[in-house]
Amino acid sequence: MNPLGIMQGRLLPKYNERYQAHPVGYWHEEFSIAAELGLDCVEFILDYNDFQKNPLMTADGRRKIKFLSDKTGVGVLSICADYFMEKPLHSDDEKTALKSTGVLVDLLNAASELGIMDVVIPCVDQSSIKTNRIRDRFKEIIHSIIPEAEKCEVNLSLETDLNPKQFDDLLSQLPYECLTVNYDIGNSASLGFDFYDELNVYGDRISDIHIKDRTLNGGSVKLGSGNADIPGFFKLLENYNYKGPFIMQAYRDDEGKKVFEEQLDWLKYNTGIIC
Q1: Domains assigned to the chain
Q2: Interior CA angle at 234 toward 228 and 238, to 5°?
Q3: Predicted local distance difference test score (pLDDT) of residue 8
Q4: Which are the contacts of 48, defined by CB distance < 8 A and separation ≥ 6?
Q5: Is there a contact between 260 and 252 (Cβ–Cβ < 8 Å)?
Q6: What is the DSSP string of 167-200?
Q7: How do strand 220-221 and strand 118-123 relate by DSSP bridges?
Q8: CB count, 10 Å around CB of 101?
Q9: pLDDT at residue 274 above 80?
Q10: CA-to-CA distance for 223 and 94, rounded, in angstroms?
Q11: pTM for the whole structure
Q12: What Å distances lie between residue 225 and 200, 214, 222, CA to CA?
């Protein structure tokens, strides 16, 4: 059975009014709530803001993560590295690119220490890689990072806004076992992509799935009220040997927990997922 988890912060009040952020100072409270709800894991977030305060980046912090995981039975299997949305690895500014590469190396080593399987690298919005020039720059950086990822035995899981053909072309030029795909159901629906086409070209390279619903060209909405065919996606996914986690990155309000529980119930009823 695949682990079912939560994107960090979704069960807690918003941090500094931000929709998605590592909850500095109270992140630890989420583990016990997740355990009460029967969840298996929490996907950590590494923000650019205050990234030095993230427990992933310190020895004491990693010890606390291990302690909480052991105590509650809620693991950390993946990291969403939003840091690289603000400071892309493929930045044209050499100092920024060099620093971001160093942060990724540190993050891979932290993940290895904690037994984390995936570091999700978002290539969307301000870190998009839509042009050929930017993709060439991105590939150059990824080629240089692969030996570290292989040594740490951690996947670099790419989330992009490329269409299926563009993404397939990129992956064909990065034929590394540790270079995988993060699939976001809602983001795909918002972009107007067909998940049949997407899974057909890279379904066997997906290692991390974000469960979300969005309207076409719009923002996040409660599961089942947007353009994402979540039951249809889960049905098609049965044809693939997917072994990674399902991470609930669904719509949130200011508080988090109640609206999450409503959507978890919807997910169980409409997909048969068990936790």
Answers
A1: 4-271 (3.20.20.150)
A2: 150
A3: 98
A4: 82, 83, 85, 86, 87
A5: yes
A6: HHHHHHT---TTEEEEEEHHHHHHTT--HHHHHH
A7: unpaired
A8: 18
A9: no
A10: 41
A11: 0.97
A12: 26, 8, 6
